Amino acid sequence: MAGSPNSQLLPAFASRAQFAKQQMNLNATIAAEKAEDQAALRENAPLPKHPWHPDEASWLPAGLYNGMIGPARADDDQGIYLVSRRDKLLT
Question: What is the pTM of this model?
């Protein structure tokens, strides 16, 4: 294995931390961008380009993967047994 599962997840944790920090300041950032747009309109200048701001809900699929599916893949040397409860659902 190239590294322990913990070290392999560090980039994902760092990215999530940066995303959370941006979300904390998102309202102020959007307000500043709107002020820049208004200033450009007053001066008849082209509108400035602003970066895309992802919705916080965009991380929900990653949480599902990292919380449920990712840990099941922790050890690639051993098989994973999936238990189907389909028989219980049909009765």
Answer: 0.50
